[in-house]
Amino acid sequence: xxxxxxxxxxxxxxxxxxxxxxxxxGIAQPPLSKQIAALERELGARLFDRTxxxxxxxxxxxxxxxxxxxxxxxxSAAASDAGRAARGETGRLRxxxxxxxxxxxxxxxxxxxxxxxxxxxxxxREMSSAPGAASLIAGDLDVYxxxxxxxxxxxxxxxxxxxxxxxxxxxxxxxxPYAGQRRVGAEQLREQRLIVTAADDEPATxxxxxxxxxxxxxxxxxxxxxxxxxxxxxxxxxxxxVGLGPACMRVAARPDTWFCEVSPxxxxxxxxxxxxxxxxxxxxxxxxxxxxxxxxxxxGSLDRLLGPEGPLGGTR
Length: 316
Prior knowledge:
Layout: H1 3-15, H2 18-25, H3 29-43, E1 48-51, E2 54-57, H4 59-86, E3 91-97, H5 105-116, E4 120-126, H6 129-137, E5 143-147, E6 158-164, E7 168-173, E8 183-185, H7 186-189, E9 194-197, H8 203-213, H9 218-221, E10 224-226, H10 229-237, E11 242-246, E12 257-263, E13 271-276, H11 282-294, H12 296-306
Helix pairs in contact: 1-2, 1-4, 2-3, 5-11, 11-12
């Protein structure tokens, strides 16, 4: 029995006439009669009564047709589900990200992706760069957005593309002596209590701070470590010291804080999106396409890094 046999039987039940049913399914009447007869022999039951007034389902036919309708509906649904999965419209996206990615990049990219793909289940994890990169390499994430490209064993199997850049800025509470200043110099920062990200969590960012202030700077050795940019801003507002972080922190500015440029200018490690080069997930491909659409500068980098066989190859 094939799906076409069920369709023939349903058409015959609907039109109650071999000629009209044959026209509806696009075959001649004799082949339709033969197919229905063969189906009845296979099932060992007469499915239709042939009468001068028309062709009508028997009790066996009614039972068969009820199941046939459900079977064809399931087949259609299976084909639809397969197509949607292949287009990245269903499935799961495991996304890890550093907190600062929520300030500018993710509200547009992730917001558009989830709006366009409502049946994709997002698994979202805020993670610092070092553990986030490790989770990506281990296969626990599909994509990670952090500061600097992942390093270490397994990083050679990743694709990393820059999605944002930020210089270093300082943030202080409204009562701090630096409040109202346009910029603050490195010499001034060496004498301050600092609030910075942890070296173990953000090694690339901390390396930039060491380059600015010196490897043995007392301010760094005694700095308060903060988990994310929101904590840096909050502690600065409390008067706990001078917070140092990416310029995108300005998006989360509070009325009781003040931001200063840092002199000399220090470019922090780029905000980088990374994923496994071997990943052929349609959901990942769909996420990358949204990133391409909203961040035009990313598209060329993806093309150079991925080539026609990468995750985007089957979607464009």
